[in-house]
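User: For a reading group we're discussing how well predicted structures match intuition. Take Methionine synthase reductase. Before you show the prediction, I'll give you the sequence so everyone sees exactly what went in.
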Amino acid sequence: MCCESKKRFLLLYATQKGQAKAIAEEIWQQAGAHGLEADMHCISEMDKYNLETEKDPVVIVISTTGTGDPPDTARKFVKKIQDKTLPPDYFAHLQYGLLGLGDSEYMFFCNGGRTVDRRLQELGAQHFYGTGLADDCVGLELVVDPWIDGLWLALKEALQLQKEKEGMNNAVDAVSSSLSTALPAVHELNLSSEVQNLKLEDEGARGSDVPSQKLDDINLVAPARDTEPSLVHSVPPISQSALNIPALPPEYIEVQFQDTQGENPHLSSLISEGTTFEVPVTKAVQLTREDAIKTALLLELDISDTAFEYQPGDAFCVVCSNNVSEVEELLHILGLSEKGNNFVCVKVKQGTKKKGASRPQHIPERSTLKFILIWCLEIRAVPKKAFLRALVECTSDAGEKRRLQELCSRQGASDYTRFIRDSNVCLLDLLHAFPSCKPSLSLLIEHLPKLQARSYSVSSSNLYQPGRLCFVFNVVEFPAGPSRPVSRKGVCTGWLAELVAPLLHPSKNTLDTKGESSSTEKISIFPRPNNAFHLPADPSVPFIMVGPGTGISPFIGFLQHRQKLREQHPDWEFGETWLFFGCRHQDRDYLFKQLRCFLENGTLTHLKVCFSRDSPTAEVAPPKYVQDVLRLCAKEVARVLLKDKGYFYVCGDKKHMADDVSDAVVDILSMEMEADKLEAMKILAMLREAKRYLQDVWS
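Assistant: Thanks. Here is the predicted 3D structure of Methionine synthase reductase, as structure tokens, for the group to look at:
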């Protein structure tokens, strides 16, 4: 659809998991209320827009993935603008505003957006509006909402300047008129939605003449005994406030139920990232004792009959399913238990107001209802505010309706963060908390994101174990709490643990004549190569590995590979290797006691271990954490990094370990160089830039 040039702006989004697209759609929806039209496209659709000739303002919403990479949908665009032959005035005509999405738990925060922003500036493009960097660690909405609020005036000013440059004498009057008429319209929209929010009667009572003020008295005053807010209950001032809630997202999916005849699509058809491989699980070992706080499992996969290739340090993805009992529970709540095995046809709703509506790529056109809920939708996803807004319309109880409105409103931002986001609430939790909420299947398909494959670090070497791939993981546990009625395991780790239970605890029925398990469970995987987290190309270069807990996983592959290289090339010179490992208890969760074997055969030069929860027996308490042990080895660490030009690898938890390790390295460099902390931080930054300080971390 061609937008009128006087009102048009180009809106581009680059998304990995759908967040950037959802925010772009919110901007598109709001634009009309401000007298503007957004020409919205995925940044990958380069045949539908042309920045080289674009005269109107451009708004870009872009996420970050991996270790600071732009999303897959932006790779071609980024490659194009990074062409070194482009002149510095290539985009001199371009005005743009950019909103970057990221997570400060990771080192390269919003690097996808920063990369595009920096390159556009280098090519002469000008900001018409300041860059916004939203942090998923604390809540994207804290930056996104005010950034969008300020966007409209900036756009109108940019359009006004554009008209002036084009020499249109009447431009100033026209845009001024547009501004003066648009602002009251926005005010009116806010007022009407505030009044609408206070009408808590259900659809059948919409003709009621009860004034909204009386509804406030009847429904919104909290009982005196409930003084603390919760997921289902609010307190003043929000319980007595008029609310600004998001616009109701337009419906765009239609679901038609069919019979039970047919076949579901193959799982590989759901994966857009490349070739998938279905491989058998040949071995499962519990690495921790039963009384350990966390349960760590090692799985071995047989990849010998596939073209799957990897290097130590690479990651790969596991295609997992939702918990079947949770799916059954969801079907029961939705009143669809009897239709789980029925095939459904998913189409775009005729006459939808959603721009560019299409069936989500991760939803098959025809499959069973259970297939969609088990394999396609992330039913554990934390609901976005737009989803909560849509759920309001599916809720009949007035009090429940009001609370959902509060949780998706601007006034309820802190409650949303506390009771939804930070509590990791999912759709099932909401449906239990708000029992009168009965969403349709089409609404779930519209708002639940794609069930993502989970990424794991390889814990083996194909040189050491040809045709085998190993990986290690903790079975994630989510305890029950005020917002979650039952405890749950992680989606993928819980599924894998259940899948390999026969291998871990073989019964007589699963043992062959030799007493070995005959289970042939298979899982689907696809590669996710890591471009940097690999062994040094020169084997004579020393390196340090820091990997507490399951963070040790990739380093087992490193050491296996190094051991095999030493056996095959006895004449090569090999640099020294350091491993710093930590866990809670030496006798419960020391995952790889065979590390001693690497030490004894010379593959590993130095092994430093610590146990944070063991009671010290010596007069001087030993160090508890890997960062403490690093400080005890300060001279050697500094020598490896500075004098010997070695590498430093960190793998594991970002929040509670990787940052502390980084701080320890800064302290070590500062002390050993006799330099101030700022200088040491600069040295560490240079090591990162040179790919000699490398991290594989998760939050």
